[in-house]
Design brief:
The complex is a heterodimer of chains A (539) and B (221). Chain A is mainly alpha-helical and 539 residues long. Helix content of chain A is 61%, strand content 10%. With 221 residues, chain B is mainly α. Classes of the chains: A mainly alpha (539), B mainly alpha (221). Chain B: This is DNA-directed RNA polymerase III subunit.
Amino acid sequence: MTAQEVRLCGLLLQEHFGDVVENVGTHLIRNGVLTLRALAHETKLALDLVKKSLCVLVQHGMCTFGPGRRGPAGPVEYHINCEHILHMLRYPRYIYTAKSLYGDTGELIVEEILQRGQMTMSSTVKTVADRLTHNMPEGQSMDYNEVVSAFSRLVETHFLQRCPPMASAESSGTGSAETPPAVTQPSNPESHPDCYKLPYISLSGHGKRRRSSEDGEADQRAAKKAKTDSSECGDEGIHWQVNFERFHLHFRDQAIISAVSCKLDQTSGEIVRTMLRMSEVTTSANAAFTQALSANEIFRALPSNYNIARPILDQYLTLLVDDPMEFVGKAGDSGGGMFVVNLHRALANLARATLESVVQERFGSRSARIFRLLLRKRHLEQKQVEDFAMIPAKEAKEMLYTLLSENLVQLQEIPKTPDHAPSRTFYLYAVNQLPTARLLLQHCYKTVGNLIERRLYETKENKRLLEKSQRIEAILASLQATGAEATQLTEVEEMITAPERQQLESLRHHINKLDSGENQVDETIFLLESYINSTQASR
Amino acid sequence: MAGMSRGRGRNQFTFNVDALGFGRGDSLPTTTHTPSPLFPPMQFQPVPLHTGEEVEYMLALKQELRASSKNLPFHIRAARTKRDVSRYSDKYQTGEPKNNTIEWSPDWSRLPKELCIKVRKPQKTITGTKQQLKQRPKVAASKEDILQKLETLEKEEVHSEEEEDEGKKKKQNDDEEEEPEVEEDYDEEELEDETDYIASYFDNGEDFGGDSDDNMDEAVY
């Protein structure tokens, strides 16, 4: 793990789970695998606190455990999963996607499961139904069946998956020679055959509305009811987690479709969307291109509100194939032409566009021209750079050296003579896309870390003011609930002076900007990560 | 050999000077004396952030998630270490998390056994049963020696001392659980006497006749 990733993971853990878990998590990341005793010794925390933190991390899938180096008889070793921690940055995007695909019910289901790590189907259904009932007008309540159907749809499209079972429960029947280990390595969730099978549960009823006046009693009654209700449903031990890979495939498809729509037009975007939708189930996650689809199939599968004639569809497909971005390729001529979507090449092009845009925004359009030139032409001498880019020599030199000092451009020496004399050596400039993408990804992690730290600093500076405003809001809310007069309300509101109100407003504005910046940087992180992973998969 | 001669062509460089970017007579850029500034002035202003309904919804989601995750049981706060003096406000601040409890119940079958934190029940019942369990064998042992009354009396004295020792050991082992119980005893005592008089100064004479019960040698006057 790089230093920036470790720093970002630490900040994210601290934000969501507190300082104790941050301490434990950072030590685990830095030291690789550790046993419980070693971890308690390193972090100098109480053993119970370390146990609690590990429970939290395992519950959220960020930490895995397995038999240690001494085999099943030795102490258990814990291994942290950094990508899962970095996914926490993307939770709002997952929830918003679920909302756009499956409505409010789907959104709440995904939100509950993300916040709790793993949940059983019955508890998810009950909690979501209660939350939806709470927001509905009086007298209405959410039926469990609707929530169950939304859950089933999420599972059918693979957005939710079962947590992999622990093998230790099944190995207890083996002979005495191999004693069942206290713990075993959890398998890859996809390798379990029942990964996406819904359990049969007997759950019927309505969401319960929680009245604010009888909060305490309702909580106790709800807690007691939960204990009795959980024994009725038949899905003990079957926990569900969010399938991040499926969400990432969806985001990748969205990026490709929006790129095509921007570059060509809306109809081409729709055609590519149809092609991707048709090959959702037939294409594996790491495939370089989708299955070949014939033009006839595409024509039949187009949405009915798009009245495109067959020859026009053929023209669009030809345009897409001829486009230099190479999103769509032709794989054959049968069935009116076989077409594939080149996934890896599309990702590479999107990453290249990101790199070019970064250079353009930081160093100007002329430096971007030099950068694009070097990307296309591979190795060029300084004189050739000046000629091809049509930039005067002095400025070209300055820009090249700036890019070189930022490590975006590499210098390659090719000696003509064995003594490497400078006057008889070629100096060639080049840009390698993959290492540059990795460099930018680290910059992005550092950026998000800086944004989070700045937000924490701003919050800490104005802590007194924020607490005061929270107290006043609480007082206002309680006054309104008990039906106070308008004069009392205005009196309480005036406790915050006008300059304080301005300060609060500007603080809110800053924090919104920083949060929004984090979300936007995360989109770039996703694109670069997908590109880097796609290059690794193809090797 | 051409470049090695010192006398002739002293000012020749081994590489093409023009490629450096400045001529021989030009002034070099000024040397830097300090590290580069922490926030260097930017040449180009950054592009403004995206706006739109989608962006604002995700922003609201992010802030809500952050706020609600602080209330979930997964947000672990270390229990405050005991300060040197016990304060009056400690009685009213029992909402503090204790280190040895876990506020949510995970599926223990999915976690390794060593992580299991057993939530301990209130200590009164457990110490009561422990004392009962340990008393029974001792009471049985003393019943066997009923014939020698002096020895049984001596053994009862020894048993009470041993029980006190066990009580002390239990107190050392289970510090946190017993202290609230012990503090409750103190509170009850203090609440009973709400006067300013210190209880130990007052001798209500109950112990006068009771001390001499064991030794019947001395006559009572």
